Batch of 2 targets.
Target 1
Amino acid sequence: MTRTTASFGLACSDLRPGKTNGITDVPGVLVGHCTLRSGDINTGVTAILPHGGNLFRRKVVAASHVINGFGKTVGLVQVDELGTIETPILLTNTLSVAACSAALIREALARNPDIGRTTSTVNTVVGECNDGPLNDIQAMAVTEDHALSALAAAHGGPVEQGSIGAGTGMTCFGFKGGIGSASRRLEIAGQDFHLGALVLTNFGRAGDLILPDGRRPFPAGAEAGAESPEKGSVIVILATDVPLDHRQLARVARRGGAGLARLGSFWGHGSGDISIAFSTANPVDHGEEQDIVSRRVLSESRIDLLFQATAESTQEAVLNSLLAADRFLGRGGAMRLSLADCLAKGSETLPQNQFGQHSEKQ
C-alpha cells in the first residue's frame, strides 16, 4: 500500500479528495511510467494523457504558468498562444527532453499522417527536472522507446507514486522526492467534478519543509539554510473536468504556486517551477468547420473553489511524492532519506532562534 498523507494523519484540506486521490480521478485522464534503474542510471519518463483518444484531432483547452523560469520545457509558447494541448504531456530529466519530444512527434505522425504535409505541424509538451545528483544524467539513458513505453503504460485508476518514472532520481527538501498526486471532489450546480494534480518534485532546501501540522522535518546529514541554496525544480500538472476557458486555466495554473508556498518553498533563483493546467470539458476539434462555436465555462463567481482545490491538491501531491518514496541510494553512493521513515521514527526538527523562528541546523 502506498504511503500518503492519510497514512500519517496529515490533513491538507477542507475539500474532499476524489476516489483515488489522484489526477486520474478526472474522468478520462491516464498516467503511465517507464522507470530506469541500473547502476548509476536512475531516471525515467512519466506520461500524462488528458484522454486516451487522438489528442491532435481532439485537443484540450490548456494554459501554463512559469513560477520561476530556470527550466527547459517544450511546447509552452504555443500552449499559451493557442490555448490548447495536442499531445500527451511527458515528464523526464533535463537532458532527455529532446528524446521525449521526438517520441511524441513520432507517435503523432503515426496516428496523423497529414501532419506537416496537408495540415499543421504538431506541438509537443515536455517538462523536466534535473536528477543529476542521483542519476548519471550525462549518459542520456532515456530513449524514444522509453518515452513510448510510458505512453503505452498509461492507465486510469490509482497513480503510482514516489521513486518511479520521471521521479526516480529526484530530491525534494533534502529527502527523496519523485512523483506525487492528489485530487479534490467539487460540487458545482448540483454536479460532481474533480480537479487533480500530479507533481514531479525536485525542489526545496533541507529544513525548509513545513508539514500541515507545523513540524519542520530535517534529513539527518543534510546541509540547511543558506549553506544549501535553492536550485531545484518542480513541474505541476493540473487537470479538471470543470469547463474552463484558456484565461481561467491560466489563473488556476498560477495557484499551483500557492500549494508550493504552503510547504515552505520560495522558488529560488536557480529553480525551474512550472505549472500546466488543462480541462477535459471543452475539446477542440482540429478540423472544426463551423465559423462560430459555443462552449460552456464556469462562472467567475465560482472560480475560488478551483483555486482552493488547486492549492490543496498541489500541496498534498508534493507530500505524497515524499511519503511514497523509500530511502534511495543513487549515483556514486549518493543517498536520500525517506520522509516517511523520518516521521515514523519521530522527525528531527530545526531548532528555534531567540525570536521563536526556525534557525539553521547546527
Note: The CA atoms of residues 13 and 312 lie 6 Å apart.
Target 2
Amino acid sequence: MGQLTNKGYVGERLDSILADLDQGFRAIYGNDIDLAPDSPDGQMLGLIAQIRADLEELGEVTYRALDPDHASGAWLEQRVAYAGLTRRQARYSYLRGAALTGRAGTLIPAGSVLRDINRGRWLLVADITLGTDGSARADLRSELLGAFNLPANSALTIETLVLGWDTATNLAAAEVGAEEETDPELRARFYRSRSRPAQNSLDGLVAALLQLADVRQVVGLENTGSTADADGVPGHSLNLIVDGGEEQAIAQAIFLRKPAGTGLMGQQSRTVVDGQGVNRLIRFDRPAMVDCKAFVQLRRDAEFTAIDVAAIKAQLAQLDFRIGQDVQLSRLYSPINTVQGFWVEQLKIGRRSGALAADNIVIGVRERARFAQADIEVVVL
C-alpha cells in the first residue's frame, strides 16, 4: 500500500503490486499454480492488481491536489479560500461614451437594451437625459459577462423603444471585458496575496472589494478626525468609491469588512441584513466620468508624407486614468509620440463642457477622466 512519508505520499506501482499478489497466491495455492497472463488465475490476479493500482493513483492525485502548485478547478478554489480568495468571475464589456440622439429632454432609463452588428446586446448603465441639442453621451455594458469586441463607429439597434430616442452609435472600440479567471491566474493571485497582506482594516476592505466580479478600481477615503475633512468625508467615517461591480455585492462586502462604529458616506445606498435580522444601510460612491477633449497640432517631419491621425487618437483614447487622477498635460506627449513622422507644435486639453488650455485638468477625488476619439482633434501642418 502507498505510504505517507516525510517527503510526501509514496504510492505502490503496478509491477510491485503484481509481484506481491503473485507471491501471495503461490503461498496459498503452491508454486505450481498457473499465473500466466492468459490463464484464468492470471487474469483474475491482473484485475485485482489494476484495481489496487487505480486506488494508489487516486490517493496520489488527491494528495497532489492539496498542493496549490498542482491543484486545479474546485480543489484550487478550496486551497485559495484559506487566504480569503475566491475565483474572479467574468467581467462585463463596456462601450464608453456612446452617442445617443433624439428629441431634446428625452429621458432614457437605465437598463435600456441595444443590439450590435454581431447580435450582442448592450444595456444602458445609468439614466440619461438628452441635452438641448438632442444628444448625449452614455456608457453601455454587455448583457452577458465576458469579452465582447465591437469596432468604433458601429451603429446600434434600439430594442427598448423610448419615445423621442432615435439613434445610438458607439464612438470608440469596446472596452473588452474578461472571461472567468483561469487556474494559473488564480494561483498567481494567491501567491501575491500571501506576500502582500493588508496593513489595516481599510486596506482589507479595499482588497475585498477588488475581489468582486467586474470591479476595476476602488478608492477608500478615511477621516479619523472629528470634523469633515477637505474631501468632504464626515468625522470618523469612510467613503468608498467603487468603479464597476454589482451594487448589492459591493454593499455586502463593505458590511462584512467595515470596522464597528465607523460611519459611511456616499450617494449610492443598499440595505444589508445583519446576523440579528436588523437592516443596515450601506453607502458608497460611484466615480463620476469626466469626458475630456483635446486639440493636437502637429508639424510634419520633412521625410514623412503621411501621418496616422487615427493611431494618435487611439493612443489617447486608450489611456486608463485612476479615480481622482488629474490629467497631466506633459504625460500626454508620450502616447502621442508613439506614432512617428511629426513633432507636437501645440497641445491643449480640457473638459468637454469647458474651454481648452495648455494646462492640466484637475479631477476631483470622486471623478475619473477619459478621452473619446470623437473628442480629439488632430491638425497636421
Note: Residues 3-65 form one domain.
